[in-house]
Amino acid sequence: MDLVPALEEPLKQSLKSVLGPATAKVMAEHLGLHTVGDLLHHYPRRYEERGQLTHLAELPMDEHVTVVAQVADARLHTFASSKAPRGKGQRLEVTITDGSGRLQLVFFGSGVHKPHKELLPGTRAMFAGKVSVFNRRLQLAHPAYELLKGDAEETVETWAGTLIPIYPATAKLESWKIGKALQTVLPSAQDAVDPLPDSLREGRGLVPLPEALLKIHRPHTKADIDAARDRLKWDEAFVLQVALARRRHTDAQLPAVARKPSPDGLLTAFDDRLPFTLTDGQVKVSKEIFDDLATEHPMHRLLQGEVGSGKTMVALRAMLAVVDAGGQAAMLAPTEVLAQQHHRSITEMMGELAEGGMLGGAERATKVTLLTGSMGTAGRRQALLDLVTGEAGIVIGTHALIEDKVQFHDLGLVVVDEQHRFGVEQRDALRGKGKQPPHLLVMTATPIPRTVAMTVFGDLETSVLDQLPAGRSPIASHVVPAADKPHFLARAWERVREEVSNGHQAYVVCPRIGDEEDDPKKAGKKKSAEDEAEKRPPLAVLDVAAQLAAGPLQGLKVEVLHGRMHPDDKDAVMRRFAAGDTDVLVATTVIEVGVNVPNATAMVIMDADRFGVSQLHQLRGRVGRGSAPGLCLLVSEMPEASPARQRLTAVASTLDGFELSRIDLEQRREGDVLGQAQSGARTSLRVLSVIEDEEVIAEAREEATAVVAADPELEHLPGLRVALDALLDDEREQYLEKG
After folding, report:
1. Hey, which bits of 445-492 come out as E strands?
2. What's the whole-model pTM score?
3. pLDDT digits 0-9 by tens, 521-580
4. Fewer Cβ atoms within 10 Å of its own Cβ: the N or the C terminal residue of the chain?
5. How far apart are CA 169 and CA 353, in angstroms?
6. Long-range Cβ pairs for the range 12-20 (8 Å, 24+)
7. Which CA distances in Å does 264 have to 267, 269, 325?
């Protein structure tokens, strides 16, 4: 972050005498640490007290861990092997303990001599290695270790009470080596330029940055750690929020055409023919959008809505308002299936209002055009013509909308569906097609906790739809433990048959298609050894469909749908399913978003543990869209105690997407949520947790908005400018743009 000349010194130079160029290379390649400043901001993950020991009983499988423990016993065994046929092979087994559990260490061959001499019973040391299972017991094979010795002049109490920082490490670089490197560069912390304005820091009682860096790497007490973390959290939250506030400020300066619907235009005609009343939430959110559209600055709004809360209706009314005002509206969908689906449902909702001639024509109708990459030449030529002449007021398409050839008559609004699937270049390319920047509405059906919305979508104003339209039915969800209780799975297929015999339809979702080439690289990699279920390849659509049609669902009309089918075939399958000609659709996650078949009431998700929480919630939202109740069965072979099963139980226990998104975030690291650029070693959030630090983020956003309003160029805050420049390296710039 606060990279000033002393902190910009490459680690290759500063660590030359201490750890050598090889270590600097590993730091750069595996941890993304290139300069002294980067290393100072590589904070400990946790701290161990020498007198205390790690909980060995809670070690995660397949992860690289550092533990502090005591040797209980050590035994040297000899054995015969191909390399040592005369029984000269040696294996050292060391058992370490922390009082609560035991862990086996194994060393082989010539690697046994040093640990055999040093790891005597009673010795305390730090051990680092990858946790694996051998003979049903946890073990570390060939761990690196560092003996914990007290210096002669230290008393036993101070030695035992010393806090040992444990750093995020890799197999090639143990935590204690990172610690040694840090001790070398720690004096440079004095040169760190403070990004926080003095008034803010003093007003909140935060310690200066150099002091925070010293305390986080070399704490004397737990209070030191707390003071350092409080301060460093503020840095991360504040600098990020300043970047977002500046983007909001810049966007607010752009000109846009105000789009006000005419009092008796297309929107009024559409509302008059609606067979139902809009929910209070839809009315409120529509008003927020119409207010934004009426201003001469581009709207930047995020519309979050629960699965099935009627986001498409709100977006369509916004598009009609813009067409009323003489502009065009474009809706960008992530897949062809979804673009076709939106086109179908919007033309159905509009009826004859979608059959117009010219924009603003007397018959108060407009043309709704579809544009996708796989259209035939004639259809495509006509669609392009409709756009450039203004004949089409509304266009729905995929990435094909972004191509250079596509020109609009007067683009006034861009609606992006499922934001997380679009990158910055795509969004900006479409925005660049307006004569002036068009208004922007971003829709997501993945509920996002408030603080994540403030962090990831910080440059957008947020509207939330959390009410379900009247007539929607509840969805019952259950976990089906296929390995423990195979008869439950048999019952699941019976339930599908019952739904079909009652005149309904069902989905079966699988993680993979089944016609993939086996990738030898992937085949070599072993999954978690937690359970055999993990080693089996995920179930595939083509295999499962064949088994069901020949077995438990024999006699029913079963079809498949996946992303590698030809678009026309996909569309035909969806049309047959929507028309009720198909009983059971076996599909991949292509049905995750936007597919709307009210008659589908049951969904069976195979290998449900291989999907994320939000994805399961999305998939489940495809059933229960009509008046009949929905049923979602989550099939898994994972054992009951596993985290994967706990995740499924959480999904089955609530239909509240916001609650699930919190669970999802707590289980995954935030880096996953904040996108790739956030998980890069140098730019990731290191101490700030978007779930736990809600207050810090909200306060930092307020402070940042005030700072930017008073001094948009940050002329009076050079330290903050330096921190921003470091934060907004190219990668992060793009990441914020994606926001």
Report:
1. 461-465, 475-481
2. 0.66
3. 444 444 443 344 445 778 888 899 999 999 999 999 999 998 888 878 888 898 899 899
4. C
5. 62
6. 14/184, 14/185, 14/188, 15/181, 15/184, 15/185, 18/180, 18/181, 18/184, 19/177, 19/180, 19/181
7. 8, 7, 11
CA–CA distance, 655 with 461 (Å, rounded to integer): 25
What's at 200, amino acid-wise? L
Residue type, 675: G
Tens of pLDDT, residues 568-613: 888 889 889 989 999 999 998 877 655 678 899 999 999 999 888 8
Shortest CA distance to 314 belongs to which of 466, 474, 475? 466
The encoded tokens of residue 370 equal 């579809």
Least confident among 34-43, 165-174, 192-201, 315-324: 165-174
* Rounded average pLDDT over 94-118: 86
Average pLDDT of every residue of the chain: 81
Q: What is the helix (H) or strand (E) element at residue 72, kind and residue range?
A: strand 64-79
Q: Which residues have C-beta within 8 Å of that of residue 230, sequence separation ≥ 6?
A: 206
Alpha helices in 274-360 (DSSP H): 280-293, 311-324, 336-350
Q: Name beta bridge partners: 585.
A: 507, 559
Chain segment 262-294, per-residue pLDDT in tens = 888 899 999 998 888 888 989 999 999 999 999
How many helices (H) and strands (E) in the chain?
29, 21
Distance CA 204, CA 364 (A): 58
How are beta strands 64-79 and 89-97 bridged, if at all? antiparallel
Quickly tell me which residue has 């007067």 as its tokens.
410
Instruction: Provide the CB-side half-sphere exposure for 564 (13 A, CA).
Output: 7
Beta-carbon neighbour count of residue 494 at 10 Å? 9
